[in-house]
Design a protein that fits this description.
There is one protein chain. This protein has 7 helices and 17 strands. With 310 residues, it is of the alpha+beta class. The longest helix is centred in the C-terminal third of the chain and has 14 residues. The mean pLDDT is 93.
C-alpha cells in the first residue's frame, strides 16, 4: 500500500519548520507502510551544510571515527570530513564534489551500499516503525527547503533498509513510489544493456534508474516522467524531487491515491488528505487530486507546470 508525503517550501520564513511539518505529515501515513521508512531532506544546515557534498551509506561495519579518518586521508586536506551514524544510515559530509566523495567512500568501503548522494540532499532510511525512525533522524528539528518521505509496505522485494524508499541513484535526484511496476524486469534488462547498474531487485529502483538515465540523455524531469508513463506498465503514484523541483505523476488509470495542496508559501502532496490537514494555511489552499497520466512539476522559485502524456 505504502504512504507518501512531500513538501516544498517556497516562503523562506517557513523553512525552519520543514522538519516539524514533515513529521506531522509522516505520522498520518504510518499505517500505510509500517515495514520501513525513508526521508530525503533538501537544504538542511545540519544534514547538508553549504559547500559540502553528502553521501549516505548503509551498514558500514566501521566506527564513524575510523571511517572519517580513512576518508580524510584520501581526500584533500581541507575536505573537513564529517561522519554521523543514524542507525542503519551513515551520513558523510565533506568539502569536495559529490563524485570525488563517492569515489573515496567506495574505495574505503568496497561493499558499501550507497543510498544517497548530492550537494543538496540528505537521504536517511531504515527498517522499523516510521515514527521511531523519524526520531532517530531528528526530523522535527530539521530545517530545509524540501522534504520527501515514504512509509513502505513491501510487495516486490524484502523488507530491508536497501529496499526502503526513496531511491537516490544520481546526484540530488530522489524517487518514491506507491504501487508496482509489472514490467520492471524487462526494463531492468534493457537498462543493464545500456550500462546501468542496479543495487537491488526492487521495482521502484528501476523507475528511479530509468528517470536518471533519461535525464542523462538530456530530458528534463517532466519529459523523463512522460517517457516513463509510456514505457512502464502497472499501477503507481510517483513523487520525484531534485535540488530545486518536485514532480508528481500517477498511472493512466490513477489507481493509487494522491492529493495535492498548494499555496503561495508551499506545495504539498500526500497519499491521504489527513497528512495535509495541519499544514499552515490549508484552509485557503488549492486542493486537488492529480489527473491520471499527467506530470505535475513545481520549481521552488517558480509556478507549477503541468503536461499531459501524449
Amino acid at each position: 500500500m505504502c504512504g507518501i508525503a512531500a513538501l516544498q517550501i517556497r516562503n523562506p520564513e517557513l523553512r525552519g519548520d520543514l522538519g516539524r511539518l514533515m513529521h506531522g505529515m509522516l505520522c498520518e501515513i504510518v499505517d500505510r507502510g509500517p515495514d520501513s521508512a525513508g526521508l530525503a531532506l533538501y537544504g538542511s544546515d545540519r544534514l547538508t551544510p553549504e559547500g559540502t557534498a553528502t553521501v549516505t551509506v548503509l551498514d558500514t561495519g566501521m566506527p564513524a571515527e575510523q571511517l572519517a579518518a580513512s576518508l580524510a586521508a584520501a581526500l584533500p586536506g581541507d575536505a573537513d570530513v564529517s561522519v554521523t551514524d543514524y542507525a542503519e544510515s551513515t551520513l558523510i559530509n565533506a568539502r569536495t564534489t559529490t563524485e570525488t566523495l563517492e569515489a573515496a567512500v567506495v574505495a574505503a568501503l568496497p561493499e558499501a551500499h550507497i543510498i544517497g548522494r548530492g550537494e543538496h540532499v540528505a537521504v536517511l532510511k531504515g527498517v522499523g516503525h516510521p515514527v521511531d525512525l523519524a526520531d532517530v533522524y531528528r526530523l522535527s528539528s530539521t530545517s530545509g527547503v524540501q522534504g520527501l518521505s515514504h512509509t513502505r509496505m513491501a510487495t516486490e522485494s524484502a523488507v530491508t533498509a536497501g529496499g526502503a524508499h526513496p531511491f537516490t541513484v544520481s546526484e540530488d535526484l530522489c524517487l518514491v513510489h506507491n504501487g508496482s511496476f509489472s514490467n520492471h524486469a524487462t526494463i531492468r534488462r534493457r537498462l543493464r544493456r545500456e550500462g546501468v547498474q542496479f543495487d537491488s531487485e526492487n521495482d521502484s529502483e528501476v523507475g528511479a534508474r530509468f528517470v536518471a538515465w533519461r535525464m542523462a540523455q538530456g530530458d528534463d524531469l517532466k519529459t523523463a516522467l512522460e517517457h516513463l508513463g509510456r514505457e512502464f506498465d502497472g499501477f503507481y503514484t510517483l513523487v520525484v524531487t531534485t535540488a530545486d523541483s518536485m514532480a508528481v505523476v500517477r498511472d493512466p488509470i490513477a489507481c493509487k491515491p494522491a492529493i495535492i495542496a498548494e499555496t503561495p508559501d508551499w506545495v504539498a502532496m500526500a497519499s491521504e488528505y489527513r497528512a495535509l490537514a495541519d499544514l499552515p494555511g490549508i484552509a485557503d489552499a488549492r486542493i486537488f487530486e492529480p489527473a491520471p497520466g499527467v506530470v505535475y512539476t513545481w520549481n521552488i522559485d517558480g509556478a507549477a507546470v503541468e503536461g499531459a502524456i501524449r
